[in-house]
Amino acid sequence: MGYNSAKEAFAEWGVDTEAAISQLTTIPISMHCWQGDDVVGFEPKTGTSGGGIQATGNYPGRARTPDELRADLEFAYAMIPGKHRLNLHAMYMDTDEAPDRDQIEYRHFAPWVDWAKEHGIGLDFNPTFFAHEKADDNLTLSHPDQGIRDFWIEHGRRTREIAAQIGAALGSQCINNIWVPDGYKDIPVDRMAARARLEASLDQMLAEPLSDMRDAVESKLFGIGVEACTVGSHEFYLGYAIRKGTLLCLDMGHFHPTENIADKLSAVALSLDEILLHVSRPMRWDSDHVILLNDDILNMAHELVSADLLGRTHIGLDFFDATISRTAAWIIGTRNMQKALLRALLTPLDRLRQAETALDFTTRLTMTEEFKDLPFGDVWSEFCRRSDRPTSLGLIRELDAYQASVASRG
Ligand code: RNT
Ligand code: ZN
Question: Is the CB of 37 under 6 A from ligand 1?
């Protein structure tokens, strides 16, 4: 159809495509480093991730070093319109030293900050409470052993300081997201004791007020190996975040499969100032598939726009598929998040709200369904064209060429 005709088609509905395109340009998405190497990281002792997190597949081209990961990221960002962020995990240190988790310092991550500065990318951060011998029981901050708890509290404290330094160095607030795998395979007799220990550890870890960073806490329903009880459940962290003023991280794979994450946004936003999202795609469980442009994502993007939450929601991604090109996974997933946001920004909200307020649900339904036929693809192509990013077969050619260049990695 072409962009100009598309623009007119949307204008008939009272929707300004230019406004949508310029707003989409300003929405950063925090791309997760761990899709690039199957959640392995760069510590001297690397292994499987543990904590119930599983990247499956052995497609060639996994990044084995920080330099390879950065090269892959540079390619990915070059295929994604707009300016974005990188979400780094503590196990992705870039150093010749071998600090344990309770010894990490800013300098171990400084090369990432230099790189981010050079490319104009913001950084977010995460303590890593898994893939470590002290997390083998799937208990960290809630472990009954004080020594183990102290080890992880120290790790968490250090990541907060590192996040603050990263934020200051880049002049862009760094979100430090806390997810612990803590839970029990079989039914515990004292859930309260475990939750009280988690709360006390978090309090100690978060005691120091810091600027240039913000804390987020991420809940989960269950994980492999912790089927009976997750200490940091949704209710636990929702309450914690409200009482302590942290962000709440909602991961789309961390709820009952029929629960609607889009529905939660306006509900929690009334009690929280800011929200962090881990956009993901669960399939039967928290399988972390690459996100599709499906109803779950579209509904979520709609809520972000309709509830006016874009200004206080940090959009992060969390998926890892090792059966396809890892760079393609990043690019497809991130572009799908943007496509969903674009569709939400192109919604004739005023008209729809009017119908809803008037209890005219017939008109509301007719509009949502007829509106689906509008030429969203032309607006997306125009957005990509203005950012000099490929679409369609052009994108496939780029992805293939890059994959061919990394396929020989051992
Ligand atoms: C695990 C959580 C967590 C991790 C990352 C690697 O279930 O979703 O966010 O995926 O920290
Ligand atoms: Zn997550």
Answer: no
